[in-house]
TrEMBL record:
Name of the protein in its database record: YfiR family protein
Signal peptide boundaries: 1-25
Keywords (A to Z) from UniProt: Signal
The keyword Signal is annotated on this UniProt entry: yes
Organism, scientific name: Thauera mechernichensis
Matches recorded under InterPro entries: YfiR/HmsC-like (IPR025293)
Pfam families: DUF4154 (PF13689)
Amino acid sequence: MPFRVRAVLLAALLSCVTAALPARAQTPAAAPEQALKAVLFYKLPLFTYRAPGVRHDTVLLCHLGRSPLEQTLVSLAEAPVEGLASQLRLLRSTHEARDCNFVFIARSEADRVAAVLAELNRPGLVTVSDIPGFARSGGMVELGVRERREGLSIIINRVASRKAGVEFMAQLLRLAEVIDE
């Protein structure tokens, strides 16, 4: 997909994400917030360069733990990711993640996030979560909600991603807070 098309797609996706979230905290936003995080996770392969030797024709998206994202991901997984065949696997343990390309680590795993990241440490695997502080703890992509609930935030840990041989496209990096230390 050409650079310009990807840039427009990402900008449109993120503007929809921002517009769909309520501006006031008095309106419950848990359902839309989780749905938007699921869409961002599902579309992340479009903005990622993966390590050499990693299959590029099929994307295996995995979800570890329990979270409201599961149901949305199940419905999203029925469609290909912009021409790539995709599959979703719901994991009960990190041992089941050996073939995964992207793993969303649910908040239910927050107490053991360091151990989970250590077990998932392998080339080409992208780790994603909405656990606060995930990127600073060694995860690659943290999805959060901005202050005053004005849209989603993306935090990318480039040190962790480079260790795994993963790079993110410039369009995504421009929209994210980047940890490069």
